[in-house]
Specification:
- 20% of the residues lie in helices and 28% in strands.
- It has helices spanning 3-9, 11-25, 30-35, 39-53, 74-80, 143-149, 172-178, 189-192, 218-227; strands at residues 63-64, 71-72, 86-91, 107-114, 117-124, 134-135, 157-160, 186-188, 198-199, 214-217, 249-250, 265-268, 279-284, 289-294, 297-298, 300-301, 306-307, 309-310, 312-318, 320-321, 331-332, 336-344, 347-355, 363-366, 374-375, 379-385, 390-391.
- The strands form seven sheets. A ten-stranded mixed β-sheet has the order 8-7-3-5-4-26-19-22-23-24. Strands 12, 13, 14, 15, 18 and 27 form a six-stranded antiparallel β-sheet that branches.
- β23 and β24 form a beta hairpin.
- It starts with a helix and ends with a strand.
- The relative contact order is 0.15.
Length: 392
């Protein structure tokens, strides 16, 4: 569907959405908002509760997640089968940690957002099926994260609180409009508000600045998508994954107990002098995955107090430009090709990455040009400036 036609077909929805924003801005309460929801919306909630009530996580895991290959139950598949991937901007400022929800993300991208401080794009789909996941703190959009979330099918859900808007340069908000995402698959807190989004000043049990307090839940965000006719299909009837290209996946093969892992610890810094954002991943043989450390501390999920763990840690080297303005915004090359390191099974594969267009899938190849298969489970993609040092 052409962007012009798509925007025209949504004219009435945009008008209704703007009216909704106005009503919220003058103080409609949560109770009134809930009362005005249609019976169909309430029925959808009931159906979701019924499906979750029937989930037995000890049941056979027969269903492969198309995002990271992890195996899930049929009951979980029935839930994600009615949805599309949900990409959420989650900040990584030292005052925002521990964040909520990262342990349930299927894929996470990390890159510097401004002034040496990294930000995360967490993509939720299969891992958030069995429960409603609180996520945050949610922060603003950046142009290069738009390119990565664009890989997740037709009109992927993109969640953020405002964004960079320097025309001609770091203009994430402008690009969202150019792509035809406004008030459709773009879930900007500025246009949605309470009760989907809210601020929690007490969640970390210590004083934090306002920018570290915005939260939501995966269910609330998927509900907004359903209201915009963005469940598993678009309003034109096409499935979100009609053009989606999945990576290849294999079962893990950890080294034997008699063999020490070749890549037992991975460590790197994004910017010199920013030790609070330096990362290390430590191999855990029992779980055949890497546990994350940030700023020399175990990086945990506030929701469950679990240390974040990934089956695959990918280091993507690319061109870095910036800071490009007074706000210290950065830019990264997302298309083309470059070097990459893929850590899995306690080992490392030296290879390359390539991405033809904004919407094309980023591919990872080994030194012989064969696509690298990811070990089933969470994937973290760490974006570093070309030439950065990675110790392992």
């Amino acid at each position: 569907m052409q962007i012009g036609n798509l925007l025209q077909s949504r004219k009435s929805k945009i008008i209704l959405a703007l009216v909704g924003v106005y009503l919220l801005s003058v103080g409609i309460s949560f109770a009134v908002f809930s009362y005005l929801r249609s019976p169909a919306d309430k029925l959808s909630d009931v159906e979701l509760d019924q499906k979750r009530g029937g989930i037995d996580l000890t049941a056979p895991k027969t269903e492969e997640c198309p995002l990271n290959g992890q195996m899930h139950t049929k009951a979980e598949h029935d839930i994600w089968g009615a949805r599309r991937p949900l990409g959420i901007m989650i900040e990584n400022h030292e005052d925002s940690r521990p964040q909520s929800g990262l342990s349930k993300a299927d894929v996470v991208y990390e890159a510097v957002a401004e002034g040496g401080i990294t930000r995360l794009l967490a993509v939720f789909f299969c891992g958030a099926s069995a429960e409603e996941v609180q996520v945050g703190p949610v922060r603003s959009a950046r142009t290069y994260f738009l390119d990565w979330v664009s890989e997740y099918g037709d009109f992927p859900l993109y969640v953020h609180v405002g964004g960079a808007n320097t025309p001609g340069r770091a203009n994430a908000l402008g690009q969202i409009g150019e792509y035809g995402w406004d008030l459709y698959n773009d879930l900007n807190q500025f246009s949605i508000g309470f009760p989907t989004f809210w601020r929690d000043y007490e969640r970390l049990g210590r004083p934090v600045a306002t920018e570290h307090t915005m939260y939501s839940t995966t269910d609330k965000l998927w509900e907004v998508a359903q209201e915009r006719e963005l469940a598993s299909k678009n309003e034109d009837g096409d499935s979100w994954d009609a053009d989606f290209v999945s990576w290849e996946f294999v079962d893990g093969e950890p080294p034997s107990a008699e063999v020490a892992p070749k890549a037992g610890e991975i460590s790197f810094s994004f910017w010199k002098g920013y030790d609070d954002y330096a990362v290390s991943w430590q191999y855990d043989a029992g779980g055949n995955g890497y546990k994350r450390m940030t700023g020399e501390k175990a990086h945990k999920d506030l929701n469950n107090d679990e240390q974040i763990m990934a089956s695959n840690v990918v280091v993507l080297f690319t061109t870095e430009r910036g800071p490009i303005d007074a706000l210290k915004h950065m830019l990264y090359t997302t298309t083309g090709k470059g070097k990459a390191l893929v850590f899995q099974n306690g080992d490392v594969i030296s290879g390359t990455w390539s991405k033809k267009t904004r919407t094309a899938r980023t591919k990872f190849m080994d030194s012989k040009g064969k696509e690298i298969s990811f070990v089933r489970g969470p994937i973290w993609i760490e974006v570093l400036r070309t030439g950065s040092k990675v110790d392992y």
